[in-house]
Amino acid sequence: MPYIQAEGAKLDYEEAGSGDPIVFVHEFADDLRGWELQMRYFSRSYRCIAYNARGFEPSEVPSDPALYSQDIATDDIAAVLRGLDIEKAHIVGCSMGAFAALHFGMRYPEMALSLVVAGCGYGAEKGKGDDFSAEVAQFATSFIEKGMAEVGTPYSLGPTRVQFQNKDARGFAEFQERFLGHSAQGTGLTMGGVQAKRPSLYDLEDELRKLTIPTLLVVGDEEEPCLETNLFLKRTISSSGLLIIPRTGHAANLEEPAMFNGAVAEFLAKVDHDSWGLRDPRSVSSSSLVAAPAKS
């Protein structure tokens, strides 16, 4: 089984296909197997790499809480690229992985061809950060003390997961089985070190405004914790486009794979042909009817 050495942990990965590279970064409640439908689809035209984050076996599960943070999760993407001798790649992330992808674009812009940021925004809403951090910290302790089955089962049936269960009971059961099979220690340390302590995206507005990497934002219209944040990201990142998928919750790549794959494929084609530019500043106007004046 191949591994890449990152700071303080070996990361398990898989790859398929050839061409320009795409790196898939998974969400908190899943692992690299959650990208299988994307790996099969995009490996027809791209070199696709998916890896398990630290704390998600068979990647290593460091016992030191200091080895889990948003910065380290971001650095791990860079470690994957360097370990595979890849200079630049398309980065596709979901939820926890989407935060890492977005931070990667801000910290390593020279290594990113594009960003797909799906289901990003949990805990980032203004005025809700402290409550989110407190709830997440409590869950982090519970995972370690009570185990995956007791804590993970109700977690996997959260308000943005029931849409998936209702649409695709078989797919949801597979997702839930993967999640409940994760390391309780790795899950708790990841939640406590990465999710509970990550900065609010609203506090990163200045850095986000400097981001010019082609970016596709994806969110389900029933993913309530992320809707307002994605509107903020769309208005802040001049190189972004926003896709809202109807009647959909979290992890659109699992819940609506055909729509997700088609949208990402179209986005990547535009990036590959250098036809995904910055937003026309005239569209940001104080008037609903008259365009803003062009800047000289």
Quick overview:
It contains twelve helices and eight strands. With 296 residues, it is α/β, with parallel strands linked by helices.
Task: Characterize the structure shown.
This protein is an alpha/beta fold. 43% of the residues lie in helices and 16% in strands. It contains twelve helices and eight strands. The protein has helices spanning 36-42, 70-83, 96-107, 129-146, 148-156, 162-167, 169-180, 184-195, 205-209, 224-236, 252-255, 257-272, and strands spanning 3-6, 9-16, 21-25, 47-51, 89-94, 112-118, 215-220, 240-245. Strands 1-2-4-3-5-6-7-8 form an eight-stranded mixed β-sheet, sandwiched between helices. Helix 10 links the parallel strand 7 and strand 8. The radius of gyration is 18 Å and the shape is globular. The termini are far apart.
Descriptive key words:
alpha/beta, 8 strands, eight-stranded mixed sheet, 296 residues, single chain
Number of H- or I-type helical stretches: 12
Number of strands: 8
Low-pLDDT parts are none
Largest sheet: 8 strands, mixed
- Rg from C-alpha positions? 18 Å
Look at the helices and sheets and give the structural class: alpha/beta
Kindly state the percentage of residues in helix: 40-55%
Shape: globular
Beta-strand fraction estimate: 15-25%
Main sheet strand line-up: 1-2-4-3-5-6-7-8
User: Quick check: average pLDDT?
Assistant: 96
Describe the secondary structure blueprint for this structure.
Layout: E1 3-6, E2 9-16, E3 21-25, H1 36-42, E4 47-51, H2 70-83, E5 89-94, H3 96-107, E6 112-118, H4 129-146, H5 148-156, H6 162-167, H7 169-180, H8 184-195, H9 205-209, E7 215-220, H10 224-236, E8 240-245, H11 252-255, H12 257-272
